[in-house]
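Trying the structure run again after the queue cleared.
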Amino acid sequence: MNTTFARSLLKALPSVGRSCQLRTSSARLIRPFSSTSGVASDAKDKSRAIERQILNAQPEATADENSALSAITKMMQGERTRTNHAVSRDYSKMAESLEAEMIKQPYADRVPPHHLHVYSHKHNTILTLTRPNGNPLLSMGCGNLGFRKGHRSGYDPAYQLTSHVFGQMQERGYLLDINRLEVVLRGFGPGREAFTKVLLGGEGKNIRGLVSRVTDGTRIKFGGTRSRKVRRLG
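Done. Tokens:
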């Protein structure tokens, strides 16, 4: 009796014989760390792959150079993603700005110059080449060429000295380090004119192209103590 009633009840209501199942939402059925092919799992896997590529120096999955992922990675690593056209355009803008600045200030001090001091008085002529910070590189006088006492004064010893100093500057390789040269003249002896002749002549063809400024450093006395008695011969 009971079996017949149970069979008829199962035929009428088939869901009664099934085991009790909990009805859960589709979001809960998908586990957060599952590798199923669901939509949420695919999105999380993609986000993890992007994070892994950004954080690692050498990403496991290689992307295209023009993709958004590679752009983000390069930006995080401090690199710039620019095309050749953009780079050339930037360089052209820099060149135009530099040219405009040179036109406005053609004699502006862009590089600290070396200095060539010419000390010429009535008894001797001394040439000194210094670095931009003032440290001497080369210093010679007429006595270094064999002239003694009164023979050190005059036009010819100063001419030979200037030619020799220019040759030493070229032989020792100082011209490779000199971008700009400032000539500082001091005194009004015969060596002043001799230096000018050599600089404008054939011996100074490699030097005068580097000269950017010529200044006069002759000391002039204003007041002060009484000067020495002027020497008078005869």
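The first helix runs from residue 2 to 12. Worth checking whether this holds up in the mutant runs.
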